[in-house]
Every structure is written in C-alpha cells, then in structure tokens.
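The pair is quoted verbatim underneath.

:::
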Amino acid sequence: MSTPTKGRRFNGLPLIGPSVTVLLIWMIVPLVMTVWFSLQRYNLLDPTVTGFAGIDNYEFLVTDPDFWASLTNTLLLVGSVLVITVVGGTLLAVLFDQPFPGRNLARLFAIAPFFVMPTVAALIWKNLMMHPIYGVFGAVARAFGLPAVDWFADHPLLSVILIVSWEWLPFALLILLTAVQSLDREQLEAARMDGAGAVAQFVYIVLPHLSRAISVVVMIETIFLLTVFAEIYVTTAGGPGNATTNLAFLIYARALLQYDVGGASAGGVVAIVLANIVAFFLVRTIARRLEV
C-alpha cells in the first residue's frame, strides 16, 4: 500500500511544481529585495548616498517620533474599526434575521457599501457627508442651530475610522448574518418556553453561537485594516501633521515623498514583522476556538 502512495505523490510533483515555484518566487523575491534595500543607503534624489547601512535605517526609524505616532494611529484605527464592525455587525445580523417588510431590500442596501472602492468611499464621505459647507452632516447640524463641524480638521482620525467602519461593517454583517441563520431555532424556542427573554437569548445562545464567526471576522479584518491607505491618502494625506498617518502611509511618505528607499524598506520590514506577529496570535486563537 505504501508504494502506490509514494508513486502518486511523486507523479504529482511535476504538475504542481511550476505553480508552486512561481508562487514562491512571487512572494520571496519582493521580500528579499525589501530586506536588502532596508540595509542600504539608497536615496532617489541623491545618487551619491550609497553603501551598506547596516541597521542604521532601523535605528533611525524606531527613534523617529513619526514612527511611534503612526504605530499608535494604526492600533487605534484597527481596534476602533473592529469594535464598531463587530458590535454593529452582530446587532444588525440579529435585526436582519427577524422577519419584517422589505427585509431582502434592506439586506441588499446594508451590504452594498462593501463593494464600493475605498477611493470612491473616501471621496463620498469627504465631499458629500463630512464637508462643513456642502456635506449632509453640516446641513443637519445647521438645521438644529448647531455649528458645522470640520471633521477632517477637528477630528481627523475619527473621520477616517468612520469611513473605514462604513466600508467594513457590511462584511461583518454578511458573515455574522450567515452564522445567525445557521442557529438551531429549536434552541431559541426552548429558551423562550422556559421564560428566557430576548436579552437572555441573545447573551446565552446567540453570542456563543457567533463566537467562531466573530473570530473569523476579526482575523480577516485585522489583516486588511493594517494596510489602510486609500482612505487616508484621499481625505487627510496623513495630516494634520501626523494625526492620521498609519504605518502604510508612513512607508509611502518615506518612499515617494522623501525618496528614502532605504528608510521606507526598513519600515516595510517592520510592518511585515508586526503583521505576522498579529496574524500568528489570531490564527492560534481561532484554531483553539474551532477545536472546541
């Protein structure tokens, strides 16, 4: 029995070998080049700045206040969006699971923002919603006799958080609504017959059932939220100052605004390390939940 198995494995190698090789080259070559440039003095505006830099680029990066500000903004952005999307997605999933007139149309409208491109979403919120003169929020504030808020000047990071949350809330809703619909209705009916109210059913039956789906939402969203760029570029360009600069925008600014390829590559390596650390713990946490 062992010989045919080995033969099948051996015969399959020529078939998967080319695709695996291309995939490895596609992943490894950019990573190796990034690490290499992070160890070099390489400035696009000054060709005389060359040579091996060692860890100088990393030392300059971690001693730069902008790096720690961008790291803080990244954590605030990721954490805030996760809280808003998970809590809002859970509540909306329970709501849209209830029968009411026009439910299918409401689901469609609720999920639609997920298919809007980040650049378009940022432009919509910047010019149609949050603009202090022409925006909807400003019009509503003036209707109640309140002064209009210049969101991107007074609350820049909060504005970006709201935009990104609007984009990712439909994703959380879609996953969590699917999970809610898979809940055994006999459990809810039994709990209702035992005198459990709506809140008790939600806390002791619905939430435990959604724990795995919530873990998946957190993992997928975290991976993508660490690389948010378009929304910041279109709305605030990282400002005012560095108020909305996250790691992705900091790397962009170093590479294409300051032309410091070595420093930008060092930032990219640090971002890769941080992303892999976060992914490692998230995968372990989700794996433990799936084993239960």
Remarks:
- The first helix runs from residue 2 to 38.
